[in-house]
Amino acid sequence: MTSPNFTSPKSLKTLCKSLRIKDENTFIAAGCTDLLIHLNQQRLYDYKIIDITHLTELKKIQEQNHTVTIGACVTMTELENSPIIARYFPALKDAAYHLGSKQIRNLATLGGNIANASQSADTLPVLFAYEAELEILDSSGRIRLSKVMDTIEGLGKNTLKKDEVILKIYLKKSAALSAFSKIGARSSVTISKLNACIKLDLTESSTILSASIYLGAVGAKPIQAQLIEKALTGRMLEGLRVDSLSPCIKDQIENAIPTRASKHYKKQAALGVMEDALGKIAALYLGASSEKEGTL
Ligand SMILES: Cc1cc2nc3c(=O)[nH]c(=O)nc-3n(C[C@H](O)[C@H](O)[C@H](O)COP(=O)(O)OP(=O)(O)OC[C@H]3O[C@@H](n4cnc5c(N)ncnc54)[C@H](O)[C@@H]3O)c2cc1C
């Protein structure tokens, strides 16, 4: 066994240099929560590492006029604790909070969760619902933008080229209310068997103007739940009962995984996940309304 080579660039220029000599046996490393498992499972011992965690621009959450920019190496703990994320993207805060254990969240990065492209990745339904974009750098220093939903192929695959790295994630600021919910096998370190993001644009009287809903772990990558979106649009959030959506939630799962044995379980799970997420949005709506009344 030869000892693995290790580079830890501190500037984009040196990162490009490392990317230029990156081969099939060289891995970009952020929190390493997925990478170490991959290296162990594949019994890879002779590999090289490009550690991207020392690039300060990849570790910031920044608010601009219309956008929030999240560095690829921002951890789940940092997302969970950020007032900017809580204010504009409540579902992302929620997804980060529910990912793995505290120890995992301290290491796991947003860029890693995206690049790893697992079918049960918790941040993906949220990033799809918000139509998040990635800033991607290649070895020549060229930067390109790509939507997260176009970059993810699922089941561990993405469209990044061998010499590319995710630098930043862009999210458009939004007044929509959103929530994330998941169901999995264990309570503390839970890989999702089903997860969902619901994002709703509401009027002051709680009528749903538009809905963006993505379900994860029912396909290679999150699916847009168009049947549920349609069923919700025009309804009042206040007093909404999930039972009234039950047929279309079950149809949505049937359409996504018609031949999978797990579809019966996932239909029930989807009802619970939808009820939980809608309940969280109702709580946010009530909080926002009482805040407005308090300022009058
Ligand atoms: C016990 C345990 C529990 C977990 N629970 C959950 C869970 O509940 N929900 C969930 O979604 N995930 C879970 N995960 C998976 C994991 O923690 C996340 O996917 C994490 O966000 C990956 O980030 P990382 O920084 O650790 O990535 P790394 O492991 O460093 O990298 C993962 C992959 O992405 C590549 N990569 C990393 N950063 C970049 C970048 N900027 N540009 C290009 N490629 C990059 C790496 O080369 C590697 O292939 C769990 C993992 C463990 C070990």
Keyphrases for this structure?
25% strand, 14 strands, alpha+beta, 296 residues, Enolase-like, domain 1, 12 helices, Uridine Diphospho-n-acetylenolpyruvylglucosamine Reductase, domain 3, 3 domains, five-stranded antiparallel β-sheet, 37% helix, binds flavin-adenine dinucleotide
Report on the structure:
The chain has 296 residues and is an alpha+beta fold. It has three domains: 5-51; 56-172, Uridine Diphospho-n-acetylenolpyruvylglucosamine Reductase, domain 3; 177-295, CO dehydrogenase flavoprotein, C-terminal domain (Enolase-like, domain 1), CATH 3.30.390. It contains twelve helices and 14 strands. It has helices spanning 12-20, 35-41, 76-81, 83-88, 90-97, 102-107, 110-116, 124-129, 148-151, 226-232, 246-256, 263-295; strands at residues 5-7, 26-29, 48-51, 61-63, 67-71, 133-138, 143-147, 152-154, 157-158, 164-172, 177-184, 192-202, 208-216, 223-224. Strands 4-5-10-6-7 form a five-stranded antiparallel β-sheet. Helix 2 links the parallel strand 2 (26-29) and strand 3 (48-51). Helix 10 (226-232) packs antiparallel against helix 11 (246-256) and helix 11 crosses helix 12. The longest helix has 33 residues, at 263-295. It starts with a strand and ends with a helix. The mean pLDDT is 94.
Summarize the structure.
The chain has 296 residues and is of the alpha+beta class. The protein has helices at 12-20, 35-41, 76-81, 83-88, 90-97, 102-107, 110-116, 124-129, 148-151, 226-232, 246-256, 263-295; strands at residues 5-7, 26-29, 48-51, 61-63, 67-71, 133-138, 143-147, 152-154, 157-158, 164-172, 177-184, 192-202, 208-216, 223-224. The protein has three domains: 5-51; 56-172, Uridine Diphospho-n-acetylenolpyruvylglucosamine Reductase, domain 3 (2-Layer Sandwich); 177-295, CO dehydrogenase flavoprotein, C-terminal domain (Enolase-like, domain 1).
